[in-house]
Amino acid sequence: MSSDTKKLEAVKDQILMRTLGCGWKHLYPQWQVDNRKRTADELLEHLITVVMEYEKSAKAIVPPSVGVKLVSRQKGLTQMGSATADVQELKSKRKEKRKKIRAQVKTDLNVNEDKWKSKCQPYKAPKRDKDLINKKIEVCFEMDGADGSTFLKWFVGKVLVVYEGKEDKDQVLVTWDDENEDNSVEILTQGNFNKEKKAEAWRLHSELPMNEATDDNNEDDGETSDEAVSDVDSVTDIGDEDSLFDEFENNGDN
Q1: What is d(CA 227, CA 183) in angstroms, rounded to the nearest whole number?
Q2: pLDDT tens digits for 45-97?
Q3: What is the pLDDT of residues 134-143, one digit of tens each?
Q4: Do 194 and 90 meet the contact criterion of CB atoms below 8 Å apart?
Q5: d(Cα 172, Cα 185) in Å, to the nearest integer?
Q6: Is the torsion defined by CA of 114, 116, 122, 126 positive or negative?
Q7: In DSSP terms, which residues pair with 185 in a beta bridge?
Q8: How many angstroms separate the CA atoms of 109 and 75, rounded?
């Protein structure tokens, strides 16, 4: 495989994991122009000037789960004969690749938890009204360290009451998941919504996009079960999944 081919495949991977994985289908590129395949440099320019610029913007919302429903083997079908050695080797390589990628993702989520949680937030702060009652939120507090220094820590809690009087604007009563913390009244201002590393910042509580349903121990020859992605449609609308996979197979993997 030539270096140009490797470069082309690397650029395509970077584009596809954002456009398909994050549901940003409006950024999907044209793989061919004027009856010719676009070069690695042309696609790299699209990646940098279009996709990555959008990724940096406030409009770039990363869904809390994978943005496409992965194709899995239909249940109940009988396999005729036995898989060849080549098929077994391909399955083994795919499983190892998935395991490696998952480990990299988990590492990045642990190191950059605030960044990913921030990207999972809505563009605008939710209204502080009755719709926020029983919703889980996170509030950032400045804490005192044992050595006299201070540090910031996020606490998770559930909104019990939203105060609607003029003098009580943006004030809510929160019960905290930490049993050592008493219920408290917090002020959730528009300006403090989804601010990283800032005392009194707040955001909606979100779980990071890794769950046990896709753990290595639950894999079946590298396939992803329908149950593991059953909630994908509620995360983002990606249109016709079959069409996206057909386009990927015909153009994105050449």
Answers
A1: 37
A2: 988 988 888 888 867 776 666 555 556 666 666 666 666 788 888 888 888 88
A3: 999 999 999 9
A4: no
A5: 5
A6: negative
A7: 173
A8: 33
Distance, C-alpha 157 to centroid of its chain: 22
Three-state secondary structure call for residue 44: helix
Sign of the CA dihedral with 31 first, then 33, 39, and 42 last: negative
Q: Which residue has the tokens 């993997």?
A: 253
Task: Fill in the DSSP letter of residue 80.
Answer: P
Q: Which candidate, 139, 150, 199, 201, places its Cα nearest to that of 173?
A: 139
- What is the CB neighbour count within 10 angstroms for residue 203? 24
* Cβ neighbour number for residue 4 with a 10 Å cutoff: 11
- The answer to whether 150 and 140 have CB atoms below 8 angstroms apart is no
Q: What's phi and psi for 245, nearest 5 deg?
A: -70, -35
> Bridge-partner residues for 144, per DSSP?
150
Cα distances (angstroms) measured from residue 206 to each of 17, 75, 191, 227: 21, 32, 20, 20
Report the alpha-carbon distance of residue 85 to residue 88 in Å, rounded: 5
Q: Which residues of 118-128 are buried (b: 16+ CB within 10 A; e: fewer)?
A: bbbbeeebbeb
Q: Which amino acid makes up residue 134?
A: N
- Pairing type for strands 171-176 and 184-187 reads antiparallel
The bridge status of strand 202-204 relative to strand 136-144 is: antiparallel
Structure tokens at 121: 């937030």
> How many Å apart are CA 204 and CA 2, to the nearest integer?
47
